[in-house]
Amino acid sequence: MSVQEPLKNILEAALLAAGKTLSLEQMAALFAAGGEPDKAALREALEALRGDYEGRGMELKQVAGGYRIQVRAEYAQWVSRLWDEKPGRYSRALMETLALIAYRQPITRGEIEEIRGVSVNTYIIKTLMEREWVRVVGHRDVPGRPALYATTRAFLDYFGLRSLDELPTLAEIRDLGEIDRELQQQAAEASAPRSGLPLAGEEPEPGLPDAANEPPDDRNREKQDIEKQGAE
Question: What is d(CA 21, CA 157) in angstroms, rounded to the nearest whole number?
């Protein structure tokens, strides 16, 4: 047994029990004061654990918030059959808004509307902020001082990214529709129900917009509904 084997086993047990992302600081806090391993030792043990999972149905994944053990995405279609209820899907309008914030941040609501060519439903911004995928990072220095939106670490964790650099480059994506489809695919993998081990993220909470209550392609109806509600 190597010197790092006990540490590796402790970290594996903690990650399995937590069922969520743990930071290096949270892992170090598992040990008694004065006996905490340093970050280099933690990373070495985690790298060894990652190697143990090569060729298996689960993997050790590093994301912006730390590390987690999850089912590999290629096995999600089988694992998801353990649950009768299908995960909810996000509307095209929500995913396009999120994509614009991710790629153009910081960005105002008005700039999003100008690019999309339709008003942004207030509920979409509210949903993104409640999910903690988006936050206000400042205000544009123009009349009205509109809020500037940007993505969060929770956004990166949910989509299994370590940083925004791991998003497909705009050169690889021809138009907004392709960005939408890319994020929608990642969301489908990330939102599969879980029990114990996560798949690639958390199950969407009930009440999020989906194809049933906000038709993905009917933007005119979306705009009419907003006007009726007296939205901006």
Answer: 8
